[in-house]
Amino acid sequence: MLTEPAPPHPAPPPTDPSAGHPLRGVVLLLSALFLFACMDTSIKVLTADHSVPMVVAIRYIVHCLLMVVLFAPSQGRKLVQTQRTGLVLVRAASLTAASLFVGLALQRMPVAEMTAITFLAPMLVVLLAGPLLRERIGPVGWTAAVAGFAGVLLVVRPGGAVDPAGLAFMAVAVAANTTYQLLTRILADTDRAVAMLFYTALVGSICFGALLPWFWDLGDESLTTVLLFLSTGVTAGLGHYLFTLAYRDAPASMLAPMNYLQLLWAGLLGWMVFGHIPDALSAAGMVVIAASGALIALKSRRPARRA
Q1: How many domains does the chain have?
Q2: How far is CA 141 from the centre of its chain?
Q3: Does residue 129 sit within a domain?
Q4: Residue 7 counted as domain residue
Q5: Predicted confidence (pLDDT) per residue in 186-229, tens digit
Q6: Residues whose CB is less than 8 angstroms from the CB of residue 27 and which lie 6 or more positions away in sequence, other chains included
Q7: What is the span of the domain harbouring residue 256?
Q8: What is the mean pLDDT of the chain?
Q9: How far apart are CA 250 and CA 307, in angstroms?
């Protein structure tokens, strides 16, 4: 549904480039992106017959339990230690809100188109980083952002496959995701990636778990449905874990542009499961979005020039 940005504190690359594992990092990243696309696809299947808050609640609860199992033994108290707890919680709440509105959007639009619109957030972060974080945007950043918006317009044009209500939900989701990613940048120098990831799972579990009495609609479900529910949390938790490991094995400059390959996985799964095939203009828009996002990712990984 929504992925974590590159870990704020990835392990430093080894002095000897040959000592790294860039190929393994690429494989881990592609696996993580595939798991994220699987999560979105499962959520779309489940929300056809079940309430969005309940589906998202189970996704977060399973994800949180997985984090405790995977990280608590090695991290201990570090798993919950933060420097700026207030901002960490606001960041987690932003992702929680984004998850809800993405789920509502998935009820009304194809997975590939939803994923494409989600990638508006990194472009908005680039534009807002100038006035808010005093980062230099430059002509490359502006060009890529404008091209990305043009790509989104191709996807959401009148007569396309995007339902107006789904588009409205995605607009809110993108705003929440942009806030989440901006706070990730702000917190990157003070708080650890694993702790921030744990708090996103914890806050989502608490917020949506509190709503379960009002939205619980499980009955005599088939084993397939139960496994689908559990898979949303497993694919989310395992996906984020592999995503973090990938940035330990390969440099961010290599991996960041590849995040947009999630569009490929989303398109393939949307076709295989739902028979959704983007039309020519929508496909062209997705290509433009992916290219623009990759350009922004490459630009953001270059060292800033000194005056």
Answers
A1: 1
A2: 21
A3: yes
A4: no
A5: 887 788 888 888 999 999 999 999 988 898 887 777 888 889 99
A6: none
A7: 21-301
A8: 80
A9: 30
